[in-house]
């Protein structure tokens, strides 16, 4: 039987994780603020030539599509909706009513629900801070800038040079990375593992593909985002797994 140990070391690790997330997000915001003037100047003087982009990215580059851009937002939301449903809502629907009747029998399950949610939140914050910082530090031009026919009405100029890595792909694969890490360390049914993983990977992959076809990202942007989201989330998750310990059930 497993249990979450809420001791001083656990709270310190969680606190350090959230502090790191805050630092990354703040650094990205600060760097982005100071780079806005440079972005405006580059937009005015740079001539964008797709032949200067590596062959793979150039072949798969597309002009801007607002419709596909919006659909990618939906698939991203769906990826995290499936995660929340399988990891928090369904277990919570089973555990909470029973805990109201007899708290002691469901205490460990409730602790896992709370702990998993905190780790999930931290995974999102740390990875978001990292990809935002990389975006402003690298400043790669988006594919749609290489297509004069792209209608960019409504897009902020400062977003023109935020192509690498893909934020949507990173966020989508946070869901995939967390769910796969979760099923590897929790006692879940085979159907849950297969169905949940398939749905999340479907929506996460669709998000990445749509970001390419909508003209927002190059192929290497979304691949980098997928790797970043999966790896960072899994890293945060397994760092905190040391708080999970094996205990003997009562009577042994």
Structure commentary:
The protein has 252 residues and is mostly helical. The chain has eight helices and two strands. The chain has helices at 8-34, 36-45, 55-60, 66-101, 103-138, 167-185, 190-213, 219-239; strands at residues 2-4, 244-246. The chain has a two-stranded antiparallel ribbon with strand order 1-2. The longest helix has 36 residues, at 66-101. The protein is elongated and about 65 Å long. It starts with a strand and ends in a 6-residue tail after the last strand.
**SS-derived structural category:** mainly alpha
* Helix proportion: over 70%
Rounded radius of gyration (Å): 21 Å
SSE succession: EHHHHHHHHE
Number of E strands: 2
Proportion of β residues?
A: under 5%
Task: Output the strand order for the largest sheet.
Answer: 1-2
Number of helix segments? Answer: 8
Largest sheet: 2 strands, antiparallel
What distance separates the N and C termini? 11 Å
Mean pLDDT: 88
Question: What are its keywords?
Answer:
252 residues, mainly alpha, 8 helices, 2% strand, two-stranded antiparallel ribbon, disordered C terminus
Task: Give the SSE map.
Layout: E1 2-4, H1 8-34, H2 36-45, H3 55-60, H4 66-101, H5 103-138, H6 167-185, H7 190-213, H8 219-239, E2 244-246
Antiparallel strand pairs: 1-2
Helix pairs in contact: 1-5, 4-5, 4-6, 4-7, 5-6, 5-8, 6-7, 6-8, 7-8
Quick recap of the structure?
This protein is mainly alpha-helical and 252 residues long.
